[in-house]
Specification:
Structural class: alpha/beta
Largest sheet: 8 strands, mixed
Shape: globular
Low-confidence stretches: 206-219
CATH topology of the largest domain: Rossmann fold
Distance between the termini: 27 Å
Mean pLDDT: 92
Number of helices: 27
Strand content: 5-15%
Length: 642
């Protein structure tokens, strides 16, 4: 194939033995460089690891690479492990970080690590995983880091070069091969000129409340814009909304239209029926509900759907038969689903607890899905504008501003600290000087982070995870429970697990992993918990609150999350053989959320099972996993479906 100039530059550095970081817009062709490394490694009998930020992207890369390389490809995520000793391993970044700490010898044969979407290092909740992965990386492994366009790419590269033996070269590409053309839509007016938008839509007035915005969202005219796009031959389109229910509602709103001709309709019905059979969705009400949309070339896609149904929709979209898809932002996270047009339902979203205008980087991550290379000469972006919730200068900043810098979000977990203490003892604090946080920060901020680390180590010593300079059995157990170390280790140390069966153990673990969505937060009372779970709940809540209070006193942030037993009846019924559709009748949670939490429960149970502390506990965890891992919960079965 003919490479673009930036691709040639990166490949040339790779052939010379350098590490490489590539900063380029979404859709520019960064993945081609990763594919070059994979082919090169396989041709030279070398091994490579490809890390991705989300499981969906890991799964897609596994399928894509398997088509070409077959048995040479393996995957390890929290949900699946297939061909785990393969020459090319696909992993989530969390799994890779864990391997660095727990099984460093496993990595001796690997020559390359590919960090896809490395700008995730800036993610408040998960960015620390990317940073730790780079800090702990063995010196013999070369890096290919792929990033969206960021202004401080040179700073990031300087940090990596300061801590690694193999020199890292920077490759920058600012242009997309398929340029983006922006339009702005308010009610029934459309313009591609920001100054005209300012003149016609933004008379001086105060912003309205979020409540007004919600009412507007329910009544604005989606159908007009999509009909306009259809008439101007700019389909297919991806319509981004930041609300799951809204995606479904809008699909319903335009379902009076048919975007397919007779032949296409016959093809998509046949394809949908075939895929539903393959993924055991024929009896699922959610797939039946989707059918009248699909036959018109319409669909929706969000994290609340069954993973298998999401996969069916993704396959239909890549076939070109789906013309309009309403989806949340996760559809843009590296998954290769290009369209001709992208629509933004609004230019604001919820960042944590704050509703505010989109970051420029986030907008272009999603906008990058527009414009199919080799098919389109332009990609079209349609921004729906509501002057009641966003100002013109905010829109101008989002569209024309510079992408946000990447900043360190280092917040080392208890499990990581235990591994470091086991290896380095009190010298572990010296590791901090290798971090991006240290590289970016002033003396004051460095002192604050070191104090946080020392407070966490102090708490681990107070709780007897560390005694006389070594890890206790409790500490060893905690070091394998990423994210839930302290409460699970406390329960283990007090022998509470000895009195539990596999159902009790699963209910306990689920109480930790379940987290109500922000719009469904509630205060769970003992009265709400079924009678035969109350003894587990009292025990777990007591131990968890004790730890949370200790963290508060030591100013550790964030503290351990609260526990919830709302889903306990569901997992018990599932483990006893109940059908998935029947258990869903007893909850307001989305299907996809239940699948996700059951899979997360299995992931923690696998960590318990892999511990060498208690054979009896290992056996219970193994039985629990077998009872949970069936039907729609079985991620490996889904991944193997061709």
């Amino acid at each position: 194939m003919e490479y673009d100039q930036f691709q040639k530059e990166a490949i040339n550095y790779i052939d010379q033995g350098y590490s490489v970081i590539v900063s380029a817009p979404t859709g520019a062709g960064k993945t081609v460089i990763a594919e070059y490394i994979i082919s090169r490694c396989l041709n030279q009998n070398e091994k490579a690891i490809y890390t991705a930020p989300i499981k969906a992207l890991s799964n897609q890369k596994f399928r894509d690479f398997q088509v070409q390389y077959k048995e040479e490809i393996g995957i390890i995520t929290g949900d699946v492990s297939i061909n785990s000793h393969a020459s090319v391993l696909i992993m989530t970044t969390e799994i890779f970080r864990n391997k660095l700490l727990e099984e460093p010898d496993m990595l001796k044969e690997y020559k390359w690590i590919i960090f896809d979407e490395i700008h995730y290092l800036d993610d408040i909740e998960r960015g620390t995983v990317w940073e730790e992965s780079i800090i702990f990386l063995p010196p013999h492994i070369r890096i290919l880091a792929l990033s969206a366009t960021i202004p401080n790419i040179d700073e990031l590269a300087m940090w990596i070069n300061s801590i690694h033996r193999i020199e890292l070269k920077v490759v920058k590409e600012n242009n997309r091969p398929v340029p983006l053309h922006f339009y702005y839509n308010h009610q029934r007016s459309i313009t591609d000129n920001l100054e005209n938008l300012k003149k016609n839509i933004f008379p001086p007035k105060k912003l309205y409340s979020k409540k007004t915005h919600s009412a507007f969202s329910k009544t604005h005219d989606v159908a007009y814009l999509i009909e306009y796009i259809k008439e101007n031959n700019k389909l297919p389109c991806i319509y981004f909304s930041f609300n799951r229910r809204h995606c479904e509602e809008m699909a319903g709103m335009i379902s009076v239209y048919n975007f397919l001709n007779k032949k296409e309709e016959e093809q998509i019905i046949q394809a949908y029926d075939s895929l539903c059979h393959k993924f055991d969705l024929v009896q699922e009400s959610s797939s039946a509900y989707m059918y009248p949309f699909v036959r018109r070339g319409i669909a929706y896609h969000h994290a609340g759907m069954l993973p298998t149904l999401k996969e069916v929709i993704e396959r239909l979209f890549t076939s070109g038969l789906l013309k309009v898809i309403f989806t949340t932002e996760t559809f843009a996270m590296g998954i290769n689903m290009p369209a001709r047009s992208v629509i933004f339902d609004e230019l604001c979203k919820n960042y944590g607890r704050m509703w505010r205008p989109l970051k420029t980087r986030d907008l272009y991550q999603m906008a990058g899905r527009a414009g199919r290379r080799g098919i389109d000469t332009e990609g079209f972006i349609w921004c729906r504008v509501n002057p009641k919730i966003i100002k013109w200068d905010q829109i101008n900043r989002i569209i024309n501003g510079q992408n946000e810098r990447i900043n360190s979000q280092l917040n080392t977990s208890y499990a990581t600290l235990l591994h470091l203490y086991d290896d380095l003892g009190e010298k572990l604090y010296e590791i901090y000087s290798h971090s991006f946080h240290y590289f970016q920060s002033d003396k004051k901020d460095r002192a604050i982070l070191i104090k946080q680390m020392k407070n966490k180590i102090g708490l681990l010593k107070l709780l007897q995870h560390i005694k006389d300079g070594i890890l206790t059995p409790k500490g060893i157990f905690a070091s394998q429970m990423y994210g839930y170390e302290l409460p699970l280790a406390e329960l283990f140390d007090r022998n509470y697990f000895e009195h539990m069966n596999e159902y009790d153990l699963s209910i306990l673990v689920l109480s930790f992993v379940y987290e109500p969505r922000k719009n469904k937060m509630f205060k769970e009372t003992e009265k709400m918990i079924p009678k035969h779970y109350k003894w587990i709940a009292r025990m777990v809540i007591r131990e968890n609150e004790k730890i949370r209070n200790m963290e508060r006193r030591l100013n550790i942030n964030p503290i351990c999350k609260e526990v919830y037993f709302k889903l306990s009846p569901l997992i018990e019924a599932w483990m006893k053989g109940e059908e998935f559709e029947k258990i869903m009748k007893h909850t307001e949670e989305d299907e996809g959320e239940i699948v996700r939490y059951f899979r997360m429960t299995m992931q923690i149970l696998k960590e318990i099972q892999s511990s060498v502390i208690s054979p009896d506990l290992q056996t219970k965890a193994e039985r629990a996993i077998k009872l949970i891992n069936r039907g729609v919960i079985d991620a490996e079965k889904q991944l193997k479906t061709i």
